[in-house]
Amino acid sequence: MEFLTFDIQGDVAIVGLNRPEKRNAISDRFVEELNDVISMAEAGAKAAVIHGHGPHFCAGLDLAEHVQKTPFEGVHGSRRWHEVFARIQHGKLPWFAALHGAVVGGGFELAASCQVRVADETTFMALPEGQRGIFVGGGGSVRCARLIGVARMTDMMLTGRSIDAETAERWNAVQYVVPAGTAVERATEMAARAATNAEITNYAIIHALPRISDMAKEDGLFVESFIASFTATSPEAEDRLRAFLEKRAAKVAAPTGAK
Ligand code: 1HE
């Protein structure tokens, strides 16, 4: 592989963006390779971590490639990002993004496709499209806006403002802030834990929650009942519920104090 690394640790696929000399900028071929790696992860793992090699997570769109496109090629290019990132957001696996350094433009869009974002303290996030004379095209107007809200995204795009990890957490752009250099380790621990969940429940979490949040309240509640019943009557749920009642399953633990 030219742009990515792939490894499996237990049930967790570890995907590394590996174009550090260009700060992991995403070209068309990079997107195609990511698509292939998603298939590899789905075939061999129950959860996945995505991180960046080198000093940054990802500098977004490969700007050198972008300037050579016709308008229509640009539309197809953006739609391809949508297709591939949708395989992360609504695929078979929960994805944990381990962030450090720049998480910029398309890098933020990629991180926003994952279900959980773990940022180390060096992380900064920005949407510099306004400065470059372009617009988000990797799903940001939907995914980033739903995470941080339209007003904050508008501010980031108009002013070119860059936010640090603490602000990103306050704004809901990431769920965890961890010490520098530990994001991959923490994300991998969480992914390994998620991999032990019932597969059908993980699938329901990934697919149902974002869809239900887009629905009207009554529709969401109606859909929830079907998913709740479908999961609870699966053989796996019966085994797990029996294990709890027979005191063979772990209890819920109080938080340990670690953030
Ligand atoms: C790149 C790219 C890139 C770096 N496309 N080549 N993204 C941006 O507007 C972000 C542009 N990048 C930066 O602001 C900085 O590179 C970083 C803050 C991310 C990192 O800074 P630094 O000092 O560590 O690295 P550098 O020296 O700026 O970059 C190293 C090399 O990577 C350099 O090339 P070189 O030939 O001089 O070694 C840079 O030109 C190159 N490089 N970023 C191409 N993005 C689907 S729509 C999504 C829309 C967007 O993503 S817009 C945001 C684009």
From TrEMBL:
Lyase found in the keyword field: yes
UniProt keyword Cell cycle present: no
GO MF, any single term: lyase activity
EC identifiers of the protein: 4.2.1.155
CDD domains named in the record: crotonase-like
GO annotation terms (biological process): fatty acid beta-oxidation
Keyword terms of this UniProt record: Lyase
Domain of life per record: Bacteria
Family per similarity comment: Belongs to the enoyl-CoA hydratase/isomerase family.
PANTHER family in alphabetical order: ENOYL-COA HYDRATASE, MITOCHONDRIAL, ENOYL-COA HYDRATASE-RELATED
Protein's name in the database: Methylthioacryloyl-CoA hydratase
Record organism: Pseudoprimorskyibacter insulae
